[in-house]
Amino acid sequence: MMLSATIGCSEGEYLVHRSNAFAPFKRPFDPETWVGPTPSQRSLKTLERFNLVVYDDSHWIRNYSLAETMERLQDSIQRQPTPNKLFALAELAFLDAKTLLKDERQHDALERYTLSLVNAYEYLFTPRFDHLRNPYDPQFQEICRFYNESLEQAMRIIAADQQLRSGATYSLTLGEQQVDVVIRFPAETTPNEIADLKFVSDFRIQKLLRHHRTYGLGVPMVGIRHSNEANPAIEQYYPPGMSLPLTAFMHVSDQLTTTETKAHKQCVLEFHKTVDNSTLTIQNATVPLQTDTSIPLAYLLDQPSLSRSREAATTSLLNPEESGAGLFMLEPYDPQKIPIIMVHGFWSSPMIWMNMVNDLRSFSEIRRNYQFWFYQYPTSQPFWISAAKLRATLHSLMGNLDPLHRDTRLHETVLIGHSMGGLLSMMQTIDSQNAFWKLVSHKPFGQLKAPQHIRTSLANTVFFQANPSIQQVITIATPHQGSVMANEYTQWIGQTLFSLPEPTNAITKQLIKDNPELFHNTHLLTTETSLDSLEPGGSIFAAIREARRNPQTSYHNIYGDTKSSTIINKLASSSDGVVTTESAHLINAHSQMAVDANHIAIIDQPQTILEVRRILQQRIQPRAEYSAR
């Protein structure tokens, strides 16, 4: 498939297009010189020193044309290469390419950008210059800029010809050499998996709180993934337009092959998935790649499939039968990484997690060891019904991803739940035994009179076991004992605005009617809204608290305790404005921390995000060296 690197999405909520995406180098322009923008003084002195030009009284004496000067410089490099000669040629070629591009001579500009690239690469990586190379020298930093901008401009020219695709090749004549370039997409991707490419520099962040990038060599890109219909069991979890952080880097071989006519230099333009690795090894040296994890994330969030998710909070509240429910991933499933499944709370959607995910993915040890997934569900229904549906989703998910139970990391899954989502998460890791059935009946379940599908649905809600694949739960601002917001006023609002779909209500009424002597308490069966289900003091909270937990699962709790003087806070002192501090405490948690933030803002607080990182880091510490990035 041909690839286009043009801008392809409209103005979004998370990204906007730059008006000047590719700012040129700021150098004074001297119309009397034959180069155009003036080369650096060090390059001029190098040319003068090797008798390639004459330079007197701050003016050039034009003994040779620019093309002749670069040819003579190339000949001099072949006879006796030095870092200064390589720098001068890279700079002259780069400046000339800009002039050619301005004159719309794209093919000639591509040759010059490639010439600049090749010489910048040899300056940076030729082993014979190891003892001369000085990263503190401004010239070293400048040639890194030549490399990066030359590569990006060369790629833009290739993309304009629809040739920026895996397996494509192109050849250019540079003096006495021919440069052959082959393009390769990440080895982990299948053929045609990358459907399109975007340049990160074409965009700027608009909504995410922080923009995360690293500095080095290469061109950060957004790779838009093409759906793979051959694997629908896994593909169902991938949102359309899934975007991958990539970095393009061109390797230049230090070996020349000679034909009858020319010497050939082999180059490979590689794309690297920087969510997994942000460095390369060249000549036994570690080379940092220039990366950007925020703009690919923001690009994905602006796709129509996830734009609708931003509206899901209200839809799932007011129209639960119309709201989507299920799980989606940010990147293709990797069996070598531990899944983190994030579960939103009441009147919310997965979008609430994106600032936290953006920050967590900025740490390389998190990116290398974890993958982020999101669960979306109707938030108007009682939380124990949502918990049962999450339980079924996880069972189906793990069967689809790992039917033979070979992916060990999949079975180390982490759940992170905010507010009511924390209750859903907790209920995945406990054994109900008979405790939840006893909340509604003291008689055997076998005496229930109901059609089989209703019996099965009710059994799945009240009888369940801990999911052994959930190894860690992190709850944030969760009402472990109910919420003070679930008072008579808010319950009335909830019952007025939203309720369970009519078929569900009808089934419940019929169930009670057909079993008049079976139920001693029908509260769990007749609770119509999530607000009703969160009423403090409900017996279900005691059942969750006293239920047997999976001994292999660790529990961590973060809660808000703000001193703000809002009206809500006055109604619920010592709270986050929604959940009291007392209710937010998790008994027997492995760790617990208070954050001075309200119920919603707590997710985006640096203190919260760093605590989540600490918890995740503890789990992988034996496998991964701690990194500040």
Describe the structure.
There is one protein chain. The protein has 629 residues and is α/β, with parallel strands linked by helices. The chain has two domains: 15-295, no CATH class; 311-433 and 465-497 and 537-620, Rossmann fold (3-Layer(aba) Sandwich). 36% of the residues lie in helices and 20% in strands. It contains 23 helices and 23 strands. The protein has a seven-stranded mixed β-sheet. Strands 4-5-11-10-9-6 form a six-stranded mixed β-sheet, sandwiched between helices. It has a two-stranded antiparallel sheet with strand order 1-7. Helix 3 (83-102) runs parallel beside helix 5. The two termini are 36 Å apart. The model is unreliable at 4-10, 21-36, 316-320, 486-498 and 624-629 (pLDDT under 50).
Question: Main traits of this protein?
Answer:
629 residues, Rossmann fold, 2 domains, 23 helices, elongated, disordered C terminus
The percent range for helix content is 25-40%
Query: How many β-strand stretches?
Result: 23
> Major β-sheet, in short?
7 strands, mixed
What is the strand arrangement across the widest sheet? 15-17-16-18-20-22-23
Assembly context of the chains = single chain
The total domain count is 2
The shape is: elongated
Radius of gyration: 31 Å
Q: What is the number of helical segments per DSSP (H or I, 4+ residues)?
A: 23
Mean pLDDT: 85
Question: Which regions have little confidence, pLDDT < 50, spanning 5+ residues?
Answer: 4-10, 21-36, 316-320, 486-498, 624-629
Structural class determined from secondary elements: alpha/beta
Distance between the termini: 36 Å
Kindly estimate the percentage of residues that lie in beta strands according to DSSP: 15-25%
